[in-house]
């Protein structure tokens, strides 16, 4: 009986569908030129997340920022895609769970010749289309509603955040600001197998109680 109760208490903590932070990064304390950044906030049912740079960018020191130089000078979206000028991170669910992505929130800062425009793509469509675009020339806080982008029922998704229209290859840009610098929000949902386990546990408890009454 105690084993059943322990299992039920554990399963009772499983969220059925609650909007929350999936992953969040705060780069306060970074030198700026780290090869990899690690999520500082991670949902219980999402794996630790890591951010890196595309092959076209160079890591560059800048305190409290995940920073890069060698962004596409001038140019178009196609140019920066061909140049591999992006930050990338992959959100992975824990076994037995899936998730929907609802929005992105981030802080951005740049040097005077850093990239002034940015756009976001994902692996869901093979990075074929923009999920959101921004004019980031002023720096500050930005966001985008992704609830209608079809990013649902996922076990994994890679995001690529591209920047272009820099004034110089020496110009820098990266995630930096007050509080969490990059946040992906969404909803975590148990897979059918996890829900079946919950039903099995409750069924087992009911049988156990009936047997004890005999």
pLDDT < 50 runs, ≥5 residues:
none
The total domain count is 1
Main sheet specs: 8 strands, antiparallel
The CATH architecture is Sandwich
Relative strand content: 35-45%
Q: What is the share of helical residues?
A: 10-25%
Structural class: alpha+beta
CATH class placement = Mainly Beta
- What's the helix count? 3
Question: Rg to the nearest angstrom?
Answer: 21 Å
H and E order: HEEEEEEHEEEEEEEEH
Rounded average pLDDT: 90
Written account of the structure:
The relative contact order is 0.24. The mean pLDDT is 90. The protein has helices spanning 2-12, 77-82, 192-213; strands at residues 18-25, 37-38, 41-42, 50-53, 58-59, 66-69, 86-92, 97-110, 117-122, 132-135, 140-145, 156-164, 173-175, 182-190. The chain is globular, with a radius of gyration of 21 Å. It has one domain: Sandwich (Jelly Rolls). Strands 1, 3, 5, 6, 8, 11, 13 and 14 form an eight-stranded antiparallel β-sheet that branches. The protein has a six-stranded antiparallel β-sheet with strand order 2-4-7-12-9-10. Helix content is 18%, strand content 37%. The chain is of the alpha+beta class.
């Amino acid at each position: 009986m105690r084993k059943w109760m322990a299992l039920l208490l554990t399963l009772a903590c499983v969220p059925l569908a609650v909007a929350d932070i999936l992953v969040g990064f705060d780069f306060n304390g970074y030198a700026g030129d780290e090869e990899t950044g690690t999520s500082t906030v991670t949902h219980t049912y999402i794996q630790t997340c890591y951010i890196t740079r595309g092959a076209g960018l160079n890591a560059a020191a800048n305190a409290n920022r995940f920073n890069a130089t060698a962004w596409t000078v001038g140019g178009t979206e196609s140019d920066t895609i061909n140049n591999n000028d992006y930050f990338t991170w992959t959100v992975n669910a824990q076994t037995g769970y899936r998730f929907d992505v609802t929005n992105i929130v981030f802080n951005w800062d740049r040097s005077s010749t850093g990239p002034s425009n940015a756009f976001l793509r994902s692996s869901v469509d093979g990075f074929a289309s923009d999920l959101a675009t921004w004019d980031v020339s002023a720096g500050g806080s930005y966001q985008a509603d992704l609830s209608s982008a079809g990013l649902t029922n996922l076990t994994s998704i890679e995001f690529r955040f591209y920047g272009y229209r820099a004034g110089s290859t020496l110009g820098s840009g990266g995630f930096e600001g007050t509080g969490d610098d990059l946040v992906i929000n969404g909803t975590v949902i148990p897979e059918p197998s996890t829900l079946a386990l919950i039903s099995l546990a409750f069924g087992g408890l009911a049988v156990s109680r009936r047997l004890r009454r005999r």
